[in-house]
Amino acid sequence: VVSQEVQQVMISGQRDLRRRSIMWKKDACQQLKIKSSGKIDFFTGFLSVFIVSLIMLVCLKLSYYMIAGAYVEDALAGSNLASALIDIEEYGKDHTLRILDPQGAYEIYKEALSINLQLDEDGRSFQRGLLEGPVRIVSYIIYNVKDGLVEIYEMDENGNMQESAQGEAGQIYTPDGVLVESTTIYSRIHFG
User: Fold this and answer.
1) Distance between CA 93 and CA 150 in Å, rounded?
2) Helices (H), the chain
3) How would DSSP label each residue in 107-155?
4) Is the pTM of the predicted complex or chain greater than 0.90?
């Protein structure tokens, strides 16, 4: 009889152990899920913040390039207009715009560009964050139009006239694709 009682207690103890073991496993699994879920949430949150930061950085850089582009475009337009030394007498007679001194126009263009872009003696901008490296003139071309003919004066970056040519108005295009129908100045710079 003692042995049966001992057996029943042992069986009962084993059942109790199994129940406790199963409950402990369930509890451990639930804790593990909670911890894993926390790690996943942290990773997802970190990844989201990283992606949003990256997008903001790209947008900031794009706006920076747009501002720099507008700044340079305005400086070029202002410098081109400043260098348009027209012959006042001829304009007064027949309202024809002509630039008679291409070399003088180029010198004024260089000075105006230096002022507009705030360049030092080395051709570097005082606004270092906006323009990097020295600015150099790649191309400066004057298109004089009179009586349907176009005279073309092209200067190199040192101000030396590379070539002088002629053509018909309405058939010549500037390097950026603008049809030459009246006196025009085209210029292009490089920096960086």
Assistant:
1) 19
2) 2-82, 88-94, 102-116
3) HHHHHHHHHHTTB-TTSBBS-TTTS-SBEEEEEEEEEEEETTEEEEEEE
4) no
